[in-house]
Amino acid sequence: MTSLVSYTLTEGILTITFPVSDEGLLSLDACDELAELILAPPAEARVLVLASMGEQFCTGRDRTAATVDELPREVDRLVAVNHALRHSRLVSIARVHGDAAGFGVGLAALCDFAIATPEAKFSFPEVEIGLAPVLVLAWLPQLVGRRQAMRLTATGASVDAGEAVALGLVTQVAEAGELDTQITALADGLRKRSPRVLAEIRDFLRVTDQATETQATEMARSRLVVGSLRRGRD
């Protein structure tokens, strides 16, 4: 079977490129391949760069379920991609060269870093087709706050890259001509860091997303002890 998703691996930097349709939509088959590769990358990989083959980054995903019975499986395939991005052992960077909408915003925002061009627009248009984007709402309030999550999903408002940085959807804006240079510099710097330390940072941020201050502090206390003991073993 021909692979839809392609990748290159150079000096520990794994660049995964996914296809989108002319409308910017990601197929469910490509979602399956993305989830598998992100969760089980080549052993030499240290940093993940996620990029799109289309003119836009990703403006959503295909809706293929024809019956009620098929809907749970479709949703599971989408959840698998989100799970992979959150649980991968790799530090991830999204290369957002064009618009992102709905599920596509999730691909960018669930990466550890996302660098976008100034022209990129971000939106959650599901409300326009009578759908509450609950899969997005599973993570969006933790990232941008409850009120901004409500504004973005209830109105379908489009925000530019600058506002996306302010909201926390992306981490940096770079002109199109500088996008790859900025991504390479970031990825190169990250791959030189201890993979154990980076994995510990990612894991701690994930498990404390919804923890209370007391719970987070107690987890930090125990992990700092263990991390200090491991420090000399890298």
UniProtKB/TrEMBL annotation:
InterPro entries: ClpP/crotonase-like_dom_sf, Enoyl-CoA_hydra/iso, Enoyl-CoA_Hydratase/Isomerase
An annotated Gene Ontology molecular function: catalytic activity
Family stated for the protein in its record: Belongs to the enoyl-CoA hydratase/isomerase family.
The protein's name: Enoyl-CoA hydratase
Organism, as annotated: Mycolicibacterium smegmatis (strain MKD8)
